Amino acid sequence: MDSASMAEARVRALSGLPEELVAEVVDELRVRHPDAGTPRVFFAPGRVNLMGAHLDYNGGAVLPTAIDRGTVIGVAPRTDGQVQFSSSFEGGDHAFDLARLPERPTGTWADYPLGIVRAMLSLVGAAPEGASFHFGGNLPIGAGLSSSASICVGTAHALASAWGLDLEPLDLVHVALSAEREFVGVRCGIMDPHAVGLARAGHLLWLECSDVRYEYLPLDSERLSILVADTGVRRELAASEFNQRVEECRHAFEILRVSQPEATCLAQISMETLSACAADLDDVLARRATHVIAEVQRTEDAREGLLLGRPEVLGEKMLEAHASLRGLYEVSCPELDRLVETAAGCDGVLGGRLTGAGFGGACVFLIERGSEELVGARLKEGFREAFDREPEVAVFQAAGGPVELEV
Ligand code: GLA
Hints:
The protein has 407 residues and is α+β, with helices and mostly antiparallel strands. 42% of the residues lie in helices and 24% in strands.
């Protein structure tokens, strides 16, 4: 980013971000890190994925957008060579000497920003100074809105600014990926940090995960809103079930590539190959591969629709994607299904599906602008009838990537 756009970014207002959240982060930073210098404040969005469900680790294209809710990060310089982290969401403040950073994860939330500091150090060599960080914001954790990529990309952006480094958004994305994969030890796909780091307001990101080419597709915010409904369901086994899907897809690809040797990933296997090799796959692998290969086509169709100014095609494909995630990929749950079923019969809804990995978490809906209240009320009512409680419902606009905020 050049210095003019940095300056512009610095004063940009964030529609979805209440001022008191920013003030709270500044206050907490001052109270919990009284010996640090003057604070600066940064924001990094969360993300929702509209199409390309479970395609990133299969080498397909995905269609996420950043949302105007996310992580607020206060950072202040230190002269004692330490990095310190505190959070409004998690207990326990953490302090580390920059000269002796832990080699292994600590098993706490601080591993994410710590992994970023380590990755930034290996990029730049030596740290110009220490820093205190405080994390706050308004992104629900564990809802499938990518709070970890938001924290990681946001910390990388804040640290680069604090240390006066001129890094490109893609550098920040790589720092975030290496922190999560190599330090925290999560086998995450590439979608989340790219969605957060490369986001452009009013647009969806089209990201080809096989070669990381990307472009922006406009989302008409005069006409459309993104509504997210969080089931509140958090499944302990989500991480291991996610890893199991990654493994099943790897296994299906090993078998199918024999008949299509030029394919470099499961997303490149054709439906013809899959049909011809059906007998080589067991039932489970056949269902997973069918989801992936059909989702590649649905995601292409959605892109065409958007380029032709027909967002209703995207909506239809989202509904088809959900049916496939439920029946073939088996990552849905009754609460997510209830939300999608309720929305499908509701005026103003173009489409919707579970977002993120699934196994609980949230659904994303593409709706007509102006129908937010009606759709939100209908979703709550339908959910309450079935489960005797209400989901959290929030409306988002497609937001830009990390920015510095005025304080
Ligand atoms: C999780 C992962 C992403 C992606 C989605 C499924 O959110 O973090 O990389 O695989 O699941 O589309």
